[in-house]
């Protein structure tokens, strides 16, 4: 097992790929194993941005999620991702707080019109928690979701049309 500096400040947590039986509510009752924080084999550091990227990608895997971030942040994110050294678009709409053994995640997303927002958010929350926990070994204590908008197909085309001809 290796030590992880999960937020670049010296906070550490340890992860193992081997699952252990537990009452986590997951299929098979499996959850990530944890072991000693310091080992003789060395240290593994995981940046906060890595947890954010995993969470963002996991959220986007769910049908019903149109995009991540509020309208303004999506536009700014598009511009920033085009610039050299810009922010990775997969972290757009994602904010994380990481401690020694736990992570809290906040997501801003846009759902498709016609989808059950409750069902989409439940699926996003479950997938984000499962992906982050299985890939990092951190326990995700909360996944807070703000639905900023509902996307209606053709909505962008209408906004671009000029009122003047």
From TrEMBL:
Organism of origin: Phytohabitans suffuscus
Family per similarity comment: Belongs to the asp23 family.
Disordered, as annotated region: 1-41
Residue stretches in coiled coil: none
Protein name as catalogued: Stress protein
UniProt-listed Pfam families: Asp23 (PF03780)
């Amino acid at each position: 097992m290796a030590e992880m500096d999960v937020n670049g400040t010296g906070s550490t947590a340890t992860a193992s790929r081997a699952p252990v039986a537990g009452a986590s509510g997951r299929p098979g009752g499996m959850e990530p194993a944890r072991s000693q924080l310091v080992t003789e084999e060395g240290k593994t550091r995981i940046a906060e941005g890595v947890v954010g990227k995993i969470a963002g990608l996991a959220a986007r895997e769910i049908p019903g999620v149109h995009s991540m971030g509020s309208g303004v942040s999506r536009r700014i994110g598009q511009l920033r991702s085009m610039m050299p050294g810009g922010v990775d678009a997969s972290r757009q709409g994602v904010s994380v707080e990481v401690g020694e053994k736990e992570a809290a995640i906040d997501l801003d997303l846009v759902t498709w019109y016609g989808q059950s927002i409750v069902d989409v958010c439940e699926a996003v929350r479950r997938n984000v928690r499962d992906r982050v926990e299985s890939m990092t070994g951190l326990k995700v204590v909360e996944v807070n979701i703000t639905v900023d908008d509902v996307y209606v197909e053709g909505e962008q085309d209408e906004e671009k049309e000029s009122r003047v001809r």
